[in-house]
Amino acid sequence: MAVQRTFSIIKPDATKRNLTGAIAAKFEESGLRIVASKRIQMTLAQAETFYGVHSERPFFGELCEFMISEPIVVQVLEGEDAIAKNREVMGATNPADAAAGTIRKEFALSIGENSVHGSDAPETAAEEIAFFFSGLELVG
Ligand code: DAT
Ligand code: MG
């Protein structure tokens, strides 16, 4: 597997509890490099676009309101097999199902307030990186 880039969000529940550094350390300990990082707060329209794939799900409104409730930290992570590696470090969507040592097991509050987002495939990683970062912000 080649070197890949993936997109990550440290979500409002985590920024609010001052866990940005603790979560970034988990990425770095796993071998992922943080090659871009910024703290922003999304508008509702941006959250609805970002999570558009979930627009028909019953939790969509709650998800978008949560994602704009506090600042978030958006990051690009790079490394060998970065997309799958990040999903592994994140743990299962529901922290009750997440493996020991994962970010969601250690930090998530619930299936909704689950501390991190990570891209699930090369196509979504490319789309999500481009949604939040310009070419000028992406240095090697
Ligand atoms: P993941 O974030 O692990 O990729 P997903 O893409 O299926 O999971 O869902 C996106 C987010 O939506 C997830 O991180 C939290 C929220 N979510 C998913 N399922 C939910 C549910 N059953 N109830 C409340 N929120 C949910
Ligand atoms: Mg997902």
Key traits:
binds magnesium ion, four-stranded antiparallel β-sheet, binds 2'-deoxyadenosine-5'-diphosphate, 140 residues, alpha+beta, 4 strands, Alpha-Beta Plaits
Folded structure, characterized:
- With 140 residues, the protein is of the alpha+beta class.
- It has a single domain, classed as 2-Layer Sandwich (Alpha-Beta Plaits).
- It has seven helices and four strands, in the order E-H-H-E-H-H-E-H-H-E-H.
- It has helices at residues 12-16, 20-29, 44-50, 60-67, 82-90, 103-107, 122-132, and strands spanning 3-10, 33-40, 72-80, 116-118.
- The chain has a four-stranded antiparallel β-sheet with strand order 2-3-1-4, sandwiched between helices.
- The longest helix has 11 residues, at 122-132.
- It starts with a strand and ends in an 8-residue tail after the last helix.
- The relative contact order is 0.25.
- The mean pLDDT is 98.
- The chain binds 2'-deoxyadenosine-5'-diphosphate and magnesium ion.
- The site of 2'-deoxyadenosine-5'-diphosphate (DAT) has 9 residues, from loops.
- Its EC number is 2.7.4.6.
- Major role in the synthesis of nucleoside triphosphates other than ATP. The ATP gamma phosphate is transferred to the NDP beta phosphate via a ping-pong mechanism, using a phosphorylated active-site intermediate.
- One of its GO terms (molecular function) is nucleoside diphosphate kinase activity.
